[in-house]
DNA sequence: CGACGAAGTGAAACGTGTTCCTATTATGTC
DNA sequence: GACATAATAGGAACACGTTTCACTTCGTCG
């Protein structure tokens, strides 16, 4: 494999290494929360994580890898939190709207963090494929579960709809992050897309 | 107005200035075509456009402004080319697919250029609002025209659908640019979205 | 024509992502 | 415990976007 990858938690043998990785991601989230994309400076991350710059680059080969990995970890938390409880809402549309809006509200509560993670996600190129794929799968599976809780045999249309909804949600988020649309507009865009797609 | 803006063609009084602006955008497109986002280096653009670096920054306050402005100019060309001829296809779905696929094919013929412009569009923040807005309007109007040629009274659903389609198209393009999906997958994503939305 | 302000030039300098190199420290093996 | 290997620290150096500044050129007005 010639792709440059971030070291995942499983790759790391020793507890000290997992601990280092965690400190790095914590520092990333902390800096991103305070000042957004620009505040996540590699030297600052290294210092706050108490790690040398070279070590940081050994764990994450670029700032983008670092931020997308952090996004992945956050998304896993969200997905895990949603996985267990049953979702409110009587039909797929209601449940999907619930999930997307709840997630959106969560992100809007942390504008800087959201800005940093979204920008990174959008700027990522092919070398970040793995990390991106992780996030994409989590998003799709959150949406399909909301559409059909507990169902394992999804039609290709189900998956296609989930994908389109994911696209719309991401675009809306980018619009919000970049100051082009308000929180209400994001909400509305999601509702409209859901209404158009889930009947 | 406190926003930092690119100088638009209309702002520029003298012919020499319009000429400079054109040279800058030409150089941008040329470099982007050869080597993509990374190859569009501000010093290189300035040199190729035969303009001082400071002047380049006076015309376009950042690399992102520069690239999004270039995207706007390219989009205007495409939109103008489509505006006049009648579109093939008997129903809205066929015509929308025609427009999106034709545009997509055009962009895929110039992978580096597409990569550069798409990355810039996705990375743009609030300070690029105006330039982004131009592009967004062109895209929406291309799509609504494809849906209902010649119609002026569009329903809010028409606009909403066009917007969702635009989102899907952009996401698909980002996926392609970043090596996550193939040209066929982009095609397919578009068709699926159109099929789901236009009935 | 001459003066004055705006626009353009050229080059230096700064900030931050990234790379590289050497010395030091952990880690695992016999 | 001694050694080989890998991982980390520490820091210099490089690349490119961006800023700054002193100077020159251009266009316009009196």
What does this protein structure show overall?
Chain A is mainly alpha-helical and 199 residues long. The first copy, chain A, has a domain at 63-197: Tetracycline Repressor, domain 2 (Orthogonal Bundle). Chain A is 74% helix and 0% strand. Chain A is built from 9 helices and no strands. Chain A has helices at residues 15-39, 42-49, 53-59, 63-84, 92-108, 111-123, 129-147, 156-177, 183-197. In chain A, helix 1 (15-39) crosses helix 6, helix 5 (92-108) runs antiparallel to helix 9 (183-197) and helix 8 packs antiparallel against helix 9 (183-197). Chain A starts with 14 loop residues before the first helix and ends with a helix. At the A-B interface, helix 6, helix 7, helix 8 and helix 9 of A face helix 6, helix 7, helix 8 and helix 9 of B. The first copy, chain A, binds a DNA duplex (30 and 30 nucleotides) through residues 13-14, 16-17, 20, 38, 41-43, 51-55, 57-58, 61-63.
List keywords for this structure.
homodimer, 199 residues, mainly alpha, 0% strand, DNA-binding
Number of separate helices of chain A: 9
> Mind describing the biggest β-sheet of chain A?
none
Per CATH, which architecture of the domain at 63-197 in chain A?
Orthogonal Bundle
- Secondary-structure element sequence of chain A? HHHHHHHHH
Could you give me the name of the CATH homologous superfamily of the domain at 63-197 in chain A? Tetracycline Repressor, domain 2
State the helical fraction of chain A. over 70%
pLDDT average of chain A, as an integer? 92
Query: What oligomeric assembly is this protein in?
Result: homodimer
- Overall outline of chain A: globular
The largest inter-chain interface, given as chain pair and residues per side, is: A-B, 31 and 31 residues
C-alpha termini separation of chain A? 44 Å
pLDDT < 50 runs, ≥5 residues of chain A? none
Q: What class, by secondary structure content of chain A?
A: mainly alpha
Q: β content of chain A, as a range?
A: under 5%
The third-level CATH topology of the domain at 63-197 in chain A is Tetracycline Repressor, domain 2
Identify the CATH class of the domain at 63-197 in chain A: Mainly Alpha
As a whole number of angstroms, the C-alpha radius of gyration of chain A is 18 Å
């Amino acid at each position: 494999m010639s792709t440059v990858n971030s070291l995942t938690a499983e790759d790391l043998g020793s507890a000290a290494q997992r601990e280092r990785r965690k400190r790095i991601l914590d520092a990333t989230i902390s800096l991103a929360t305070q000042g957004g994309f620009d505040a996540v400076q590699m030297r600052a991350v290294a210092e706050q994580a108490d790690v040398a710059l070279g070590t940081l680059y050994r764990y994450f080969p670029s700032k983008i890898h670092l931020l997308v990995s952090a996004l992945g970890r956050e998304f896993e938390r969200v997905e895990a939190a949603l996985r267990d409880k049953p979702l409110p809402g009587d039909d797929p549309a209601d449940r999907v709207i619930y999930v997307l809006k709840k997630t959106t509200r969560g992100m809007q509560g942390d504008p800087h963090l959201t800005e940093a993670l979204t920008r990174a996600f959008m700027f990522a190129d092919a070398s970040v494929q793995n990390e991106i794929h992780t996030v994409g799968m989590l998003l799709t599976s959150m949406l399909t579960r909301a559409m059909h809780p507990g169902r394992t045999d999804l039609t290709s249309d189900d998956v296609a709809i989930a994908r389109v909804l994911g696209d719309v949600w991401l675009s809306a988020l980018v619009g919000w992050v970049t100051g082009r649309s308000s929180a209400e507009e994001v909400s509305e865009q999601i509702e409209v897309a859901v209404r158009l797609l889930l009947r």
